[in-house]
Each structure stands twice: as structure tokens, then as C-alpha cells.
Records
---
Amino acid sequence: MTVMITAREGSNYLNSFEEPHVVLVEGKEDQALVVALIEHEALQGFHVHDMIGKDGWTGKLRAICRVRGFGKVVSLGLVRDADNNGRTAWTSCRTSIAAARLPLPNIPGQLQPGRPSVAVAIIPGVDSTGALEELCLPSFQAEHMACVDGYFRCLASPDASSKAIVQAYLAGLQPSRRDLAVAARHRALDLTHPTFNSLRDLLQEMNSA
Amino acid sequence: MYESLQIDNFRGLRHLELPVLAPVTILTGRNNAGKTSILEALFLHSAGPRAAQALLTILRPYRLSGGGLNVEFSRNSTPWEMAFYNRDPGEPIRIVAEWDGRQVTVGLSVPRDRVSGSIAPNLQSAPASSTSSTSTLSALPSFSYSMRITIDIESRQSPAPEHREFIQTITAQLGQALLGPSGLQQTGGVSLELKPETDSDALILAYFLGPQTRSPQAELVQRYTNIRLDGKERLFLHAMQAIAPEMKKIEILSTGTPTLYVTFRDGPPLPMTVMGEGIVAVANYAAAILENKRGLILIDEIENGIHYTALERVWQQIGRAVKDSGAQVVASTHSYECVQAAYSAFRKSPNQLQLIQLQSDDDSQAATVAADYDLETLEGALEMRLDLR
């Protein structure tokens, strides 16, 4: 199997890792995007696991290290939202990695060699704020975004959140898409856009590990 | 309290380390992963000078046959062999534990002259009633099998390590047998005698409770009596109410044999012997923990007979009983619900619970490794639905 997906709502228990590359994400939308990128790049041997939110990653990462088959994992990627502060998210990931006694990356987006090699990607960037929406927004078609901006101006809400803008954009697609997870699954995102380069590069690097 | 454990050459375990044991430790893992073997290793270790006796009580064929021991009568094998890794007594069993700040090593080995007695002389002297293919033996062979037990204790306080050594021998007398074309066929029970009897105490008093080894009623009555004398009967009742909330009273009544009776609401007292499996199981657990102060309680398949909705309350009561008595509980389970319930019961007591999942080693499938989960790691695993069984 090219990509294994686990911990999605209603999925069975995660019993073991069978793939050499494991990507940990904090939600189903990030999971769908990472899977879409892996498939778009025709990468092999990935397991994308939903950590069910951003809380408790220290305990969760230690638990991940105890899953059967983890000893055969070659590369491990952690994908986290920057939220209010990308540097804080980066530091939080490093704290969890250190607590799990895994190789500790020193530079965001770069694999720290070891067994397994470990990397952290902060989206949209370690020096940014925001989450998946901020990463994806630049990839949306400019002419359609002009319409979305007009829509919010019409509503007299010029400070619409990224989430609201993304939802308005996705709702206007033909066919409409409920959220980024659905859009990613149906390849309604332009995955060739440079905004995804850092994430793409990380997956490529993991694939080569 | 046992703080860590290392097991070598015991049962199916070539080498296994359990770095952390908590006041309550749960063992999980697939069939034949070694959960029961760990309980048995702890039982042997706690027995110390009485390890040979303990070994006889836990040998699986003994437990399964309800009293008989399926001894293989051969000059090349001993009944102890089933306890050794690959049934090879050439390598000693070694169980090392950190226990109350001391490192205590219990070793079991079979001396070179491990078997005395022989089949041939006995058979020659045995009058046999022959048929065409088999002979029924009336004078039956007996064999003696020796076991060396060593105990080494190292302590930070005492620079000189303590070393003790015992040799005990079981003599097995076959009750009934046939001599057939394939050799001696055991058809009856075996009487066993262990000598010399040791006058040394066990290192720690341990109770081993399993689906096939619930305490006899007399033992339960004795334990409840001790609990009653200690004034802890309310704790015992609360533990029982975890599985039977309508239970109002527990008492010992005698209509010949003293028996534990329970009363539900305003009904008549009912003997514990007629209760369901879950109630009897919880009675066994609670009595063992409350009575065995600072002792060790080993429970195999703890969830057996207990409805999943009662599991969290049962764990809560186990936690209370453990805190009260200072006993340590090590329990195995196959149930995810049981693990979830334990987490819920202990989530506000971070150092009380540890889960150890036995897995095949990723590099060598033949070896067993222990994945240990403290409370925080367990919470993460449960939230992500990682398979902990």
C-alpha cells in the first residue's frame, strides 16, 4: 500500500506500522493534504497518522514509539500548525521529540539522521502564524479569490478569518467542497503550487531516507 | 514494592526486562506473548527459598489437571524442564528484581545429577500382568528430581552481598502405568514429595489468582476473617459493591463449613459459592489485596467474568485497597475496555498505574520486548486508539 492512513474518525485500532515512513499530523485536514501530496508525488511506503489535535503530543509521541513495528520505521515527520507562533510550535515539537528520546532536529523541515530520522514541518512556516488555511490560500485561483474578497466586502466583514475565506472559496467550487480535507481528497487543490514546496521537499527527503 | 524485573531463561522468555513496575501494573500482549510467564516469574521470585514449591504449584499441567502433574518419566527429562526456556535446564532461570531499594536475584537450576532412580530396575522387579501389547505395572517406579535455588541480595546500605543456596528434591511416585510398545505410559496420577522442607520464609507473600486458580472458599473465609479483625470490612464491602451495587452485607455463616455470605437489599443471605464468576473474582481480588499487606497480588486475566460497565469501579476499588494495604498488584488482561477503565480509574494518580505491552522484537521476531506506558503515554495511546492489547 502506498499510503496508510490511521486514526481517522471511525478507523480501527492502530496495531502496527508496516511502512518505512511515518508522518504525524494534528488533524484530518492536514492528514488529507499530506496524503494528497504523497500521492501527487507518487511516493511509496508512507503511513500518515492523525494525532487527534495538538494537545498531549509528548505522551502521544511516546505512545507512537511503542507501536509494534516502530523499530523498523526509517523516517518520522511531524507536521504541526504554527497557530499563534511558529517558533513556539517548533519548540513544543522538539520538547516532545526529546521526551520520546528520538533524534532531535535542529532546523525546521530538515531530517535529523538517526533511527528513525526525524523532521518537523511547521505550517505555513516556522516564522509565520496560522495553520493549514494559511498554507493553502496562496494556491487558490486568483480570479476566484477576487470574487471571495468581494463577497466578504459585500458582507462588510473585511477582516474575515482565513478559515472563513477558505470555506467560502471551497463552497464556490464546482462541485463545492465542504472543507480542505474533502478538497484534498478530491484533488481540488493545486498541489503543484510553490506554497506546498517545503512540505513536498520534506516528504521527498523522507522518501529518500 | 517491586520496582523493576529482569527474567532470563524462563518459559518462553529468553531475556526480558521490565524497567518500571508500579503499585498497579497491567500486562497486555497477544496470546503466548508471556504475560502469564511474567506473573509466574514474580511468583517464583517472591517465593525465594520456597521457589521449588512455588514452581510445582504453577506448572501449567498441574494447574490444568486440577491436582495431578503430568510428569514425563524419563531419565533424560525432569518435570522442572517445562519452566526453562526451550525446556533446556542447561541454562539457569534467573529472575532479578529491584525491590524496596535492593537488588534481589533468584536463580533456579537443575544440578548435573538431576535425575536419580531409573525405569529399568523397577520394571524388572515389577510384577506385570501382560496382555499382547501392554503390561499393567503394579510396582511402579519413582524418580527424584533436584533443583538448586540461589538467592543473592545486594543493597546500597550493606556493602557485602548476601548469598543463600538451597537444593530441594521432588520424588515422584507414579500411581498407575502401562508398559506398552512405545514405553511407559502414565495412566494415573503422580504423588510428589518435596524435600527437605524449607524453614525459610518466602521473600514476599504473594497470591496468584487466575481463571483456574481462584481461592478456595476456606481461604477466602480466612482472608475475610483477617480483614474483619483488621477493621477493613467496609473497604471489602465497597469493593464488592463495585460489581454488585445492591450488595448490603457480607458475613461469615456456618452450616457445617464456614462460608462467606452476602445479602442483597433486604433479601436473605446467600452463600458466595452460588454467586456469579465476576462477583467471586472481585471477592478474591479484594480479599487478597486487603489482607496481604505490603504483599504481591498476581492476577491472570483480571477482566474475566466482569461486565465492562463495572470495570472502572473495580479498578477504583483496587486502587483504594492497594493504597490502604500497601500491596502491589500485577494483572494481565486481553481487554481494551479493561485498560481504558484502568486509565479512567487512575488518571488522577500518575504514579499508581503502569501498563506493559509485550511485543515481538522488531529485529528478532522470536524475542519478546516490553513496551511500557506511564499514565501520560497511556492517555495518548488511548486517545489515538493505538492497540494496547
---
Amino acid sequence: MDEIKRIERRKQATLARRHIFTETVKPETFITSLSEEARENFFAGEKKRIETNLKKRKIKKGILTGIGVFVAVLVSALALVPIFFTFLNSFMSSEEIISNYQVVFQSMSGHATQGATYMSRMPVLKLIPEQVTIKQYTTLLFMNPEYLFKYWNSIILTLPIVGGQMIVACLASYSFARYRRKRREVLFFSYIILMLMPFQVTLVPNYMIADTLGILDTIWAIILPGIFSTFAIFLLTKYMRQIPSGYIEAATLDGASEWQIFTNIALPLCKNAIFALTILLFIDYWNMVEQPLVLLIDTAKQPLSVFLSQINEPELGIAFAASSVYMIPPLLIFFWGEDYLVEGISRSGIK
Amino acid sequence: MRPGSEIAQPKTQKVTRSAVRTVSKEEAELKLINRPKPKNVTPLASTKLTPDDIPEFEDTPERRATLELRKKRHWKRRMREWGIFTGYLTPSFVGVLLFFFLPLIMLFVTSFQASPTNAKFVGLRNYERVITNPAFIEASKNTLIFALISVPLAVILALFIAMLLNSGLPGKSLFRSFLLNPMMVPVASVVLIWQVFFSYNGVINGIAEHLSDSFQKIDWLKSEYAFVVVVLLFLWKNLGYNMVLFLAALNSIPHEILESAEMDGAGPVKRFFAIKLHYLSPTIFFVGIMSLINSFKIFREVYLLTGDYPNKLYFLQHFMNNKFTQLDYSMLSSGAIVMCIVMIIIVGGLFFAESKFDKDVEG
């Protein structure tokens, strides 16, 4: 009985609702006011307008990307020009180089204005050598043992520093990241200050300590301070502090020792940063000029960077080949580890 | 008696039950008043702790022994923790102590002596000599100006390029590696090419002369323009690194916020200043610090390009180097100490500003 009543009532309610709806007057809109034909015309016009708008937007976007690409290409071309020239010029014969660039170096060395006005022709900057030879390379690598020795000097200076500093830095930054007490933070801040010190401030201290330890004029005078440089510690600590504490707590609950946490959790998580730092350190120390210049008195022990920086007119012929050969290891490392480098650099800057 | 059972009970029993209840209530109150003071209660956060609440233990020898044991264990644990982490730090700490801190102290001491061989205390005379030295003043002015120009330029241009690459350009990663390339190239290798470009008879002058006859040759490396050249070199070398940092930071900005801002009608400029800059601020700070460090490393390039005594580019580093070759140690050490102090002030100020700014952002 109740059921039937309810159904009835609902029916009535629905009907009432429908009634109301049918009763409401539809508001006269712009579209409905138009006749059938006019409406179609209107829609066609709208469609056209939208299409042209879209096209305009597309063109605008295309132009903008074009400008963007142009700027990017320009900037990267500027970035790559010196590298390209060095490489391409290394295939010229040494007579060609001297005839091309002698003007430049005459104006550099002393008798500038006189010689410059006398030789009024401009230096020829050529991309493609007249005669492609690898004579420069052969003279460099096979005729001149001095050059190879310097290359070897560069290697035995750079590799121990990079390896040593990475090991020391991993340990120290793990400590700084995990054990955060007030005194440690003060110590960490002083490490940062040390990192920011330009080499010229630490030059005298380095010289003094090398003198007292009796390692002046040996490669250890450069390697030892290099190993304990604090640059890597700063970045690695920043990285290790991003490790979620939950990982470490979980490991401790599972009974891992500190050493296990360090080797099995902290280091693998920082793999990218470690690779990136290794690359950065390598290029930094491969590049060094000041330290060997000051701390190594014997020129036979100095690395190639110092030699290259002191190249004069007579050696101009092989200079480009020497520069290219010197550039190759860092560039190879860069191409090999670019992804690690980018990833490692990226995460160091974000909180 | 359970309260739920009263429903089923007949009415007649209710009177007696209530009587029983009143009695029990009074008793309970009495009990409450006369209850023994609790000896061992953990106080809740809301209750106030009175001296009575603190449990009293009898001072028996056993109790003392347990207390001592606890203390010992606590210290043992702390010492163990300290020991482990100090162990990790030791190699670095010893090295830094030996090669950086100790020499710095020696430096500090010699800065107060007449000369390294003559250990007479001369007070602040060395500092006076350094600060009034025109070369030192010139050098610090140049260094400061260089940092003030090049660091903001490096930050802003890198941010611009990063945003350009991030705006959906094709071949983004290719451009990124191109721009990162100069960082990997040893200075000594490309110095030659820079010289070919910028020297008096160099390529740039040649091209400019070729284009217009009225062009006066500029000696790029020895006039005021040397500054421009070095700033260019600095940017050439560092833009890639900064750009990678900014690219990462731009990618970490939450997309929802940018989208909702766009829906609300914020234009690209507004979106940049109101949202992106906010999220980028830690990165900007970091990039600034790294650029500052690198701006001190530019000496290498300047030295290789222009030698010991450049005209307009006489930096603090040149001052140090030249004093070093002149063996003027007392002046050198006091100069280094002055530089050190200035660096500490600058960096400390920057870090202080960052921590304050961070609080503002979070709060």
C-alpha cells in the first residue's frame, strides 16, 4: 500500500518538475535569434576566424622558436669557436701557421706599435688549412720527448689528486652529513671559507709548509694540498644531506653497521655526484697553472699546462697540436660522463 | 553492578538500588579525598608538575649502581657515535689542519713580524703598509669591480639561456652539451686562440678594419677594453655550468602552480616574477656563490693572456704573485690576511642573508 503511494507521489513530483521546465521561457540568445541561414553563415565565419587565429598563433610561435634557436645556435657557436679553431689549425703545417699568425705575436712581444704599423696586413684566420698534414703531431709525439714528459707530468699530478681528494671527501662529507653538532657545523663553515679562498691566499701557506716538510720542488708539494682541498667536501655534504633519514634508520634497525650504511646506502645514492665531482676536479687540476709555477722550480717537472701557457713564437708551429692533444682527455671524459655530470651538478643546486 | 542491567529490573527494586548508590558515592568521595599520594606517575602535558609528583627513590646502593650504569651506557653510546664520525672526518681534518689551518696561523704570526727572518714584533705596521699601498688599492678595486660586474651577469645570462632552452626548443640537450663544453677545455689550450682574436694585430681588429675604413685599431688586451675581454672570457667559461643548475631548478618548479597561475590570467612576466623567481631563489644564491669562486679563478686566464703586469687588469692575485716573486713576505702575509678577513665577512654575510631569506620563504 505504502509502496504504491510513494511511487504515485514521485510520479507527481516528476511531472510537476517537468511542467515547470516546460513552462520556463527559453531566453532569447543571439544564436536563436538568427535565422537558419544566418546562423550557418555566422558559424562559418567564426570557424574561419578561429582558424586564422590558430594559424597566426602557430606562426608567432614558429617565429619565436626560430629566434630562440637562432640565439641558442649563436651562443653555442660562440662557445665552440675557439675549440674548433684550435683543432683545425693543428692540421696546418708549421710554416703556414707562422705565416698566418706571426703578426699577432709580433704585436704581443714588446716592439708593438712600430712593427704593427709596418706589417699592416691582418692575420688570416682560416678554418680549413691549405694542406692537411699531421706533421705537427708527429713532431710533437715522436721527435720531441720533452713534450711527452710534460704530458706524463700532467697525468701523475692530476690522477692522485683527484683520487685522493674523492676518497677523503667521501669520508669527511659522510661525517658532516650524519653528525650535525654545533662544533661540527662551525668546522664545516670554516671548510667552506677555505674552499672559497683564492689560490693566492693559500699560496704562501702552501709554500711555507712545503718548505718545512722538505717537499718543495717535488710533486708532493702539489699533490698533498690538492688531496686535502675542501671543494669536494662542500658539494658532497650538500648532496649527502639530501639522503632521506628514513633510509638510514631502516638500515640501522636491520642491524647495519655505520660502515655498511656508508658503503651500501650513502655512496650508491651519491653515485652521480661522485662522478660529476670527479670530472670537475679532473678538469680543475688538469688546468692548473699557478701551483706548479710556484711550487715546482724545476721546469722538467712542470706539467703541460705551464708549458703551453709560455709558448712563444719559435714554438708556435706545434702549439696548436700541443693544445689539441692536451684538450683531448678532458673532452673525452666529458663526452663519456656528460649525463652524470649534468645530473650531479643539477642536484647540487636544488634544496 | 553494571549500568546496562537496570533496564530489565522491575520498578520496585529501584529505590533500594538508588540508596545503595548514594552510599557508594559518598564512600567514593571519601576515598578520593583520603587517597594515598601517588608515588610514581608520569605527568601529562596539561597537568602541572609539583614536587610531589616526582617519584622518590630510596638512596640504596643498588639504585646508585643502576643509575651509574645508565649514565655510563649513555656516555658510551655518545662517545661511540662521536668516535665513528670523527673517525670518518679524521683524514680530511688532519690534512686540512696541516696544509691549511696551521700555515694560516703561521701566516698570521708573520704578518706581525718585521720579516720572516727577523721575528721582531712590529704590530700593525705591515697592515698599514699594505692598506696604504697604491698597488694593493688598485688591485682590490679591480677585483671588486670585476666580481660585481661578472657575477650578476653570469647569473642573469645563465638564467636567460636556461629559460630559453626550457621553453620547448628542439635539440635542448645538444645545446646544453655545446654550452657546457667550454668548461671542459683547459685554459692553456685556448689562450692561443684568444690571443689571435684579441691582440693588436688580431682577427677582431682586422675584421673591423676591413668593414669600415674609419675604424681605429683597439688594443683589446692592453687598454680599458681588456676588462670587457676578460668578462667575456669568464662568461664563456662559466655560463654552461650555471645554466645546467638553472635548468634543473626550472624543471623542479611544480607545474600545477604555473598552470593555475596561467588560468588565473597571469602573463609570462608576472609568472616569472611571482612564482619562478621564488622557487629559483636558493639556486640563484648557489649559482652566485659558485660564480664568485670562479671569478677569483679568472686570474689564470688574465695571467696567461696579459702577463705579470697587466694595465687595467691588475687583480689582487697579481699583487700576491708579484709580491711572492719579490720575496716581500711580510707584506704578502698581511695582504693575504686582509683578503681572508674580507672573504669571511662577504661569505658569512651571504650565508646569513640566505638563512634569513629562507626563513622568510618558509614562514
